[in-house]
Amino acid sequence: MVIIWVFRCISIVTTYDYVDSLRGCLFPVNRTPTECGNIWEYEENLLAAAQELADEKLSLSNTMSKLKYQLEYEKKRDIVFVLYNLVQKYASSTEKQRDNIAITDSLNIGKSKHGRDHVKFIRAPTMADPISDASRAVYIVHHHL
């Protein structure tokens, strides 16, 4: 039994050597000196390096997709913030407009028979009260038709 096993091992090794020599004859360009003892070890090392490269490529692809998603989320969030500010400005301007309408209604401003307002609003001059912008008033001047 042992003799058959030894003979089989020797035949396998000689077959490997024969295949290596054939491969060297058929593909002389690919025959480069390596630090490995045989071609199978060299190919296994190449396969392991290719597998590591594929894993790294997959990892980079996943990272790129995550960064792309995060960038789109940030852009969308910035747009939502800008829209929120615009809505707030619109709401405050419509509120100011409602206040102005209420003030004019409380003054009983109507139209004359010629279609002109009885009241004219004039903004106060800027030099009238240079202390603050808030203290500037709107003067009401009555027109007599």
Can I get a quick summary?
The protein is built from two helices and two strands; from the N terminus they run ααββ. With 145 residues, the protein is mainly alpha-helical.
List the keywords.
rod-shaped, mainly alpha, two-stranded antiparallel ribbon, 2 helices, 145 residues, 7% strand
Topology readout:
Elements: H1 2-26, H2 39-106, E1 119-123, E2 138-142
Antiparallel strand pairs: 1-2
Description:
There is one protein chain. This protein has helices at 2-26, 39-106; strands at 119-123, 138-142. The chain has a domain at 111-145. The relative contact order is 0.04. The protein has two helices and two strands. A two-stranded antiparallel ribbon has the order 1-2. The model is unreliable at 121-125 and 128-145 (pLDDT under 50). It is rod-shaped. It is mainly α and 145 residues long.
Helix share bin: 55-70%
How many β strands by DSSP? 2
Oligomer classification: single chain
Q: How big is the Rg?
A: 45 Å
